[in-house]
Design brief:
Layout (H helix, E strand, L loop, with lengths): L7 H12 L6 H8 L7 H11 L2 E6 L10 H6 L7 E3 L1 H7 L7 E8 L3 H15 L8 E8 L17 H11 L5 E5 L7 H13 L6 E4 L10 E2 L4 E4 L5 E2 L6 E7 L17 E3 L5 E6 L25 E3 L5 E6 L2 H8 E2 L3 E9 L1 H10 L2 E10 L8 H14 L5 E6 L18 E4 L5 H10 L5 E7 L31 E6 L2 E3 L2
Parallel strand pairs: 1-3, 3-4, 4-5, 5-6, 6-8, 7-9, 8-10, 10-12, 11-13, 12-14, 13-15, 14-16, 16-17, 17-18, 18-19, 19-20, 20-21
Antiparallel strand pairs: 1-2, 21-22
Protein name: F-box domain-containing protein
Organism: Coemansia javaensis
Length: 493
């Protein structure tokens, strides 16, 4: 069957797959997809709604040398700013009402809110409502954070609440909200705008992805949130709707689960649909005994429950210090999960070993600096307990970033290990012992090997002997990557 014989529905699916490129580079994606419209009349008819499936606006930094505001840059001197958008193309093609996503990015010298006001006016001039937009991404990044104005005053000539209300009026059916801001994007005015917009979309919102503070009132409840990825305070949510949860910069003493609305009489919070849990804890505070103080910004509405139940969990990712110990102690985890990734202190590894979780696809364990220098035997006991339960995994990786934690062949009791990286000082004899004792090892990197001139000519892997001589048995025939660093020089036999 030729491509021209495909029905329109199948051809549209093929072109949609071909057009789906970098989600965070809409301008480049548009330039790459425009040639599809010039193939033939049929392709143009089928590809038009695919190529113009959404709108993007890129508002660049102010380039003039005279002092000016971004409002002046737009109105009085268009050459002062760089604006890239497909609004005109979408409007001329008649697909403004069919746009399914909107991507707005502003980077300017003063405040991005004034530029956002002008972008809203441009959107309104094309269509009074963009009902088809389901995904809205906004990135507001001032080059230098402006002084925070009083909450009751407008910023850059535009009221924050009015801007959020205008955006929501234009796009009332948003279900996916991506909020960000590099540099000074985390300023109070931007956070207030994001919080107001998120609160207006709370009834329909299913995806919330935020990399900067979002000031959402505690009284607003998000009943349909399915996927959450944020580094700021959690809004009030329903645990039975959540499928993925990723939190960044979580303080060690934070009870982040208090943000989930549930029966206050119950001492257990159930997450029946949660499949992926990713937690990155910040540096441990000097005192972790005061659980009543909440410096995280995570809304605390009541005392934490005694148990947290994750019956459907498939991926568990934990980074950071001792804060995860409290979670693992209170959590009811399934006996078998798909993937486990932990980069933390020795206490967290011990808590994970005590939880009895067994992975079925992959295990990645990273021992951070200072985690086990005082008691290496206890650290490797926890590591071996975790690895021994992971039967049938294709990937078992151990990364020892603690330069004071010695790694010996007898330290690792799991022969199924597939990847090993060590920063602590080792010797050639240790390297040979690790290769011989770990038959499934496919990659190993030792970054501080003590030089031994008598053994530097050691052949670690010998697939065959040149010249037709008798074959030499390799130490490990499956070892595909070996990196040894001798006094700063890396060798890869």
């Amino acid at each position: 069957m030729r491509l021209g014989d495909l029905p329109d529905s199948v051809l549209s699916a093929v072109l949609s797959e071909a057009c789906s490129g970098g989600h965070y580079d809409r301008a480049t994606e548009l330039g790459r997809n425009l040639p599809l419209l010039a193939v033939c009349r049929r392709w143009r008819r089928v590809a038009l709604p695919v190529v113009y499936s959404g709108v993007f606006v890129r508002y660049g930094e102010c380039r003039c040398r005279r002092p000016c505001t971004q409002a002046e840059a737009v109105v009085e001197d268009p050459g002062c700013a760089t604006i890239s958008t497909n609004l005109g193309l979408v409007a001329s093609a008649g697909y403004a009402g069919a746009a399914g996503w909107a991507d707005i990015r502003v980077r300017c010298r003063v405040s991005p809110l004034a530029a956002l006001r002008d972008i809203i006016q441009q959107l309104r001039s094309i269509a009074s409502k963009w009902d088809g937009v389901r995904s809205l991404e906004i990135v507001l990044s001032p080059e230098s954070p402006p002084p925070a104005p009083p909450p009751d005053q407008a910023d850059c000539g535009g009221d924050i609440e009015q801007l959020a209300d205008a955006l929501y009026t234009l796009m009332p059916r948003v279900r996916e909200l991506v909020l960000g801001g590099a540099g000074g994007g985390g300023t109070p005015p931007v956070g207030a705008l994001y919080g107001r917009l998120a609160a207006l979309c709370a009834g329909r919102l299913q995806v919330l992805d935020s990399t900067c503070p979002v000031a959402v009132p505690d009284s607003v409840e998000f009943g349909r949130l399915r996927d959450v990825d944020t580094s700021c305070r959690l809004p009030c949510m329903r645990p039975d709707a959540l499928e993925t949860l990723a939190l960044q910069d979580v303080p060690a003493h934070s009870s982040w689960w208090d943000a989930f609305s549930t029966n206050t009489r119950s001492r257990t919070i159930r997450f029946p649909r949660l499949r992926s849990l990713r937690l990155a804890y910040s540096a441990d505070p000097s005192s972790e005994d005061d659980d009543d103080d909440d410096n995280s910004g995570v809304a605390t509405r009541r005392r934490g429950p005694q148990r947290l139940c994750f019956p459907a969990l498939d991926e568990l990712h934990i980074r950071g210090g001792r804060g995860a110990c409290r979670l693992l102690e209170q959590a009811e985890l399934p006996q078998r999960v798909g993937a486990v990734f932990v980069s933390a202190a020795a206490e967290v590894l011990r808590s994970l070993a005590d939880a009895g979780v067994a992975a079925t696809r992959s295990v990645d364990l990273a021992i951070v600096e200072g985690a086990g220098s005082s008691d290496p035997a206890a650290v490797f006991a926890s590591v071996n307990r975790i690895l021994s339960r992971a039967r049938g995994c294709r990937t078992l990786a151990l990364y020892v970033y603690d330069s004071g934690l010695p790694v010996l062949p007898e330290s690792i009791g799991c022969a199924a290990l597939t990847e090993l990286r060590v920063l602590a000082p080792t010797s050639i004899d240790t390297a040979v012992g690790l290769i011989q004792g770990l038959p499934r090892l496919a990659a190993m990197a030792l970054h501080c090997v003590t030089p031994d001139s008598a053994r530097l000519d050691l052949s670690v892997v010998v697939p065959e002997t040149p010249g037709g001589g008798a074959p030499v048995a390799p130490l490990n025939a499956g070892l595909a990557s070996l990196a040894l660093t001798f006094d700063g020089c890396r060798r890869s036999p």
